[in-house]
Design brief:
about 75% helix; Sodium/glucose cotransporter; about 500 residues; 21 helices; mainly alpha
């Protein structure tokens, strides 16, 4: 595909996105931005969250990853189901009962000021790094196939992408995102289905034969039974469960969309519907990866990084229509994670650190002006982070993403577990130090695990160890407290 055609597709898609933005952001205020005035239809939220949870990372990294890890990622997805049930039955009732805008406000009521800031701070760190990685993945594809041909530097490409995200989230916030995510999920799923069709056509092999060939090649193996292996199936399952609880249930971006539903019952229907559909969607992505592997083996195609497999095949070996389908799918997968992250980080900083919801006498005009400033500042941080990640692209992005989550969401897991399942009061000022020490210990243990634990290698289960260390640290600096407040929370 020519760079001009790729750029034209990108601009047309963006124009469609801005049309939806204009319709949904009219008469928007701060409550529209933060929680959509609690009027979002649950089925729209559920459908849109598919695109937001998958993002460009799933669209490119998961299919490319299959050649190295087979279908072992599917065991992580099975763990997701249990995690989503925990969110729907335990966390959502808590958030709705306390009528939270920022979910980290719970930590202030349960523990105190420093615990509250620690939880919100770790979310901001994790979401900033994770969203930057997701955005980098898409920007890098555009750079390779469009901007390099015109000798335009990477930073200009990144700046254009960030500016577009700013413009369509600037006013409407979560009210806009709920609807734009729906549009983008549709295009992303359509792109996956059509890509599978074009692979079958390109190989001249019926889909039924492709499924059989994938099975016979052993690439569909899900369960790894060697407990030393970093993808041992029990580690994968429980990692998936707790990754979901933390990266969705303890994540302001994902919960902000749930809290925009009309009531708890609708939010729970959203969560159960979304989680069921997500299993089948992830399986579809894994089969896409298997078919890409078979295609590359048949055509003798080799790529450097696994993340490059899908774009190289789609844009260089399957014709212009298949390339068009891939590009639309990639853009559709990228925008939901970027816009949601920017909006949720703006919400967290505005509520958790600037206290816009607690300032008496604050006019809507002043609140909006402050929110705009926060929005632009976060976008600048994204831009800088993307430039840094552009120098570190040495492994599958999804692997990096879960590794980051293990270190940054672990303290949140420990904090919320301690708060929900104990009645003890912690020494609030000690919490930030425990939250820093816990991932530090995890990093050391992970780095030297082979020597320390008879060949054992940590995988995604690192988040469990991190959360456990945080929990035990809080316990060590706590006391029993049978107060009415502790029981209520």
């Amino acid at each position: 595909m020519s760079p001009f055609l790729i750029l034209g597709i990108f601009l047309l898609y963006t124009a469609l996105l801005f049309t939806v933005t204009w319709i949904t952001s009219r008469k928007a205020d701060s409550q529209s931005f933060f929680i959509g005035n609690r009027k979002s239809p649950w089925f729209v939220v559920a459908y849109g969250m598919i695109g937001a949870s998958l993002s460009g990372v799933t669209f490119m990294s998961v299919p490319g990853w299959v050649s190295e890890t087979q279908f072992s990622y599917m065991v992580v997805v099975f763990g997701y189901l249990v995690g989503y049930a925990v969110i729907a039955l335990i966390l959502l009732p808590l958030y709705y009962r306390l009528k939270l805008t920022s979910i980290y406000s719970y930590l202030e009521e349960r523990f105190g000021f420093w615990s509250y800031k620690t939880g919100a701070g770790f979310f901001i760190l994790s979401r900033t790094l994770g969203a930057s990685l997701r955005m980098f993945l898409v920007i890098n594809v555009l750079q390779i196939f469009v901007f390099d041909a015109w000798h335009i530097p990477f930073w200009v490409n990144a700046l254009i992408f960030i500016v577009l995200i700013i413009l369509y989230t600037f006013k409407g916030g979560i009210r806009t995102i709920v609807w734009t995510d729906t549009l983008q999920t549709t295009f992303m799923l359509l792109a996956v289905v059509l890509s599978i069709f074009y692979i079958s056509k390109g190989l001249g092999v019926p889909l039924s034969d492709l499924f059989r060939e994938a099975h016979e090649s052993r690439i569909t193996r899900m369960f790894i039974t060697d407990w030393h292996h970093e993808r041992f199936f029990l580690k994968q399952f429980f990692s998936g469960m707790f990754i979901t609880i933390t990266m969705t249930g303890l994540d302001q971006e994902m919960m902000q969309k749930n809290l925009s539903c009309r009531n708890l019952r609708e939010a729970q229907k959203n969560m159960f519907t979304f989680s069921g559909i997500l299993v089948f969607v992830n399986l579809m992505f894994l089969f896409l990866g298997a078919f890409l592997f078979l295609f590359s083996r048949s055509k003798g195609i080799t790529v450097g990084a696994t993340d490059d497999l899908f774009p190289v095949i789609a844009l260089e070996h399957m014709g212009p229509v298949a390339g068009l389908v891939f590009l639309i799918g990639l853009i559709s997968a990228a925008f939901p994670s970027a816009d949601g992250a920017l909006t949720s980080l703006t919400t967290s900083i505005s509520i958790d650190f600037l206290g816009l919801d607690k300032k008496k006498g604050l006019t809507e005009k002043k609140a909006t002006k402050t929110r705009y400033g926060v929005h632009l500042s976060i976008a600048l941080v994204f831009f800088i982070s993307i430039l840094i990640f552009s120098t570190l692209n040495d492994e599958a992005i999804i692997d990096k993403l879960f590794t980051i989550a293990g270190y940054t969401y672990g303290p949140l897991l420990g904090l919320y577990t301690f708060g929900l399942f104990t009645k003890r009061a912690v020494k609030d000022r000690v919490t930030p130090y425990i939250a820093i020490l816990s991932p530090t210990i995890c990093f050391i243990l992970s780095k030297y695990s082979v020597q320390l634990f008879n060949g054992y290698r940590f995988g995604f289960e690192l988040i469990l160890l991190n959360g456990f260390l945080m929990f035990m640290g809080l316990w060590a600096f706590s006391r029993k407290q049978e107060t009415e407040k502790a029981l209520r929370l």
